[in-house]
Amino acid sequence: MSEKIGTFDDVSCGRTVQFYIDEKPYWADGTEAPSPKMTGMQWRIWWLSVAGKFFEGLVVFMTGVALPLIAKEFDLNAAQHGIVGSASLFGILIGASALGGLSDRFGRKRVFIFELGLFIAFLAAIIVTPSFLWLAVCLFGMGLALGCDYPTAHLVISESTPSHTRGGLVLSAFGFQAVGAIFGTILGYIILTLDPSIQAWRWMYASAIIPALIVFVGRFFIPESPHWLAARGREREAEDELEKLLSRVPAYPTEVKIDDLQEVASKKKPKTGYAALFHRENRRALILASVPWFLQDLGTYGIGIFTPTILAATVGHQRENAHNIADLISNDLIAAKGTALLDILLLVGVVAAVFLADKLGRIRLQVFGFIGCALGLSIAAQSSLFDGPMQTALIFAGFMLFNFMTNLGPNAQTYLIAGEVFPTRIRGTGAGFAASFAKIGACLTAFLFPILLSDIGTTILLYILVGTSLLGALITFFYRIETKGISLEAE
């Protein structure tokens, strides 16, 4: 057998960016050789993208542990309490659409670097914030950066990886949001234990600065997306960046030559920007990417941020009148321990999603996950009918099922689908819009949860979320577009 490796079909037509990323090698006699492994550069891009999702989980869910301390230091009323809880989510809402779409204009790499620099700047500022107002501004600024990361990190991974493993790679990176959530809760608990003071929340945020700086530097050393360059008619630059992306020893492919497809595309003069999202050909994709994600975030962020509060109020045996710092810290520690246990199921759920997304498909998992979320919330709602150990068991069983099913289904799949259903020329804009629309739901729950928990109680609130979960399953089914194994160039 010859040692020379090449392609089985040597015709020159149809050589696109995805062709080379997906290409399988063949020996000279036509026998298929083992598929090439991911290159070092592809893994570097994956790890640098992982970091953004980790930081999101870290700061957003750590806010749940920090919130009682912040409320005490700044003497927050119910409305201000809601603003602090929703400020970073509102920033994500704005950042995903206002900044995420910049990657379609300026390139994936530039925006990938910019977003983390913005995150670090506000993260450093929050440590020395002197007032409630500046605290809200800093949380909003961090949210802007994290919102920009929603579409950009997805595209950086998906546009550099093979079609048949894209779902698992994107979701495994996304899963580090759950790792960040668990780590943030545990870190908050450790810091509270080492420094049981009202200022401990500042150390929680400070702990992320050095890791973020390391990741920021690393993002300078990746290639620009060849997909983005080719879509803009810059094929020769795309070839250079593709060679960097697919650099192996021994070299494969040995030569990269992208066909000039821009001439054909330019005759169609496709719409770009937000106008293209609402065009008839993209409307179905827009609804599928946006509405179920909105409904999912109503539950995930509301439950995620305020789980410590719910647990402390229902099963934590907290001191009812926490008039001093010692009582406040005690309540916060009780809630943090319970939250860390529940958050583990977020990680288990997304691990299951990683293995199943490229096998069962995105739509099937999303529908199944929404139904499972509704069941979990229903179980938790039943806790109001009991006292003692049974109440505790129902709360934990319901929230554990919810956390598992949301990351197996809608929390993972909505993120994945939003970065796959739009054409390359508007992929960042479309994914950013979907993330922004979703975060309207996150902001609503984060702001209204403290008020609604007081006015209508936990049980009614949980039943409302049961209804939104079932609605998410229906909309996913009726507007379904399956993207499992589909090339990103299939427009």
Concise overview:
The protein has 491 residues and is an all-alpha fold. It has helices at residues 17-22, 40-73, 78-98, 102-106, 108-127, 132-158, 166-174, 176-194, 200-206, 209-218, 226-231, 235-245, 262-268, 274-277, 280-314, 325-360, 362-381, 389-408, 410-418, 427-455, 457-478; strands at residues 5-6, 26-27.
Estimated share of beta-strand residues: under 5%
Structural class: mainly alpha
Largest sheet at a glance?
2 strands, antiparallel
How many individual domains? Answer: 2
The CATH fourth-level homologous superfamily of the largest domain: MFS general substrate transporter like domains
H-E order: EHEHHHHHHHHHHHHHHHHHHHH
Q: What is the CATH class name of the largest domain? A: Mainly Alpha
For the secondary structure, the number of strands is 2
Determine Rg (CA atoms, Å): 23 Å
* Spatial separation of the terminal alpha carbons: 39 Å
The poorly predicted ranges are: 1-13, 262-267, 315-324
Average pLDDT taken over every residue: 81
The number of helical segments is 21
Shape: globular
**CATH A-level architecture of the largest domain:** Up-down Bundle
Any idea of the CATH topology of the largest domain? Growth Hormone, Chain: A
Query: Which bin fits the share of residues in helices?
Result: over 70%
Biggest β-sheet: strands ordered side by side in the sheet: 1-2
